[in-house]
């Protein structure tokens, strides 16, 4: 027995309802699996319905309570409807992971207006609309919440190889995190961000195909595995991070420090 309080490190998310965007592959899929494994009910979202259903079946087989919801982050009305469906099926959303994003993969001066709109709306406008919708419901219900926005080390480092707008939107996610954290702190809604480096995903596969094996430039010469982000995600949504809001955590394996 100790005569001092035990560390506040619980990762039990029982009673929590999580909504994760972009769960049909890569990081989002892993985030949904991790949150479900810790006891949260999870609304999984994305545009590829067949993949959503497959992930839902996989998670249900482990005993998790899951609601798959088709969602295009470019559609504001669909975003509101998604939150309504998640709440009707699982309860008030208390954990939001803004993960969905698309690359531009194009030089800035060569991008057409439709691609510009798609990248802005998916990567920045959509997450803002979704965050506000979730916050409105948390405030009305007088419940605390945790929001984790997925940015990128591209918000801080840009090599000039055809991802300017992606970098701009991910920098916007950092500023959105800081601003909303200040505005919603009084309601006990914590807003933080993770800025990953090169992690295995469909988006990364496309980059590797276009640019070659970029891992050779990294200090550890590797592409990271999404599971290496588990502890950070769980920290930011757990009671242990109650006083942490408006910050971002880089997870880049030293890639951005070269």
TrEMBL record:
It comes from the Eukaryota. InterPro entries: KR_dom, NAD(P)-bd_dom_sf, Sc_DH/Rdtase_CS, SDR_fam, Sec_Metab_Biosynth_SDR. Keywords: NADP, Oxidoreductase. The keyword NADP applies. Residues 16-229 form the Ketoreductase domain. The keyword Transmembrane helix does not apply. PROSITE patterns: ADH_SHORT. GO terms for molecular function: oxidoreductase activity. SUPFAM superfamilies: NAD(P)-binding Rossmann-fold domains. PANTHER family: 7-ALPHA-HYDROXYSTEROID DEHYDROGENASE, 7ALPHA-HYDROXYSTEROID DEHYDROGENASE. Belongs to the short-chain dehydrogenases/reductases (SDR) family. This is FabG protein. The gene is fabG.
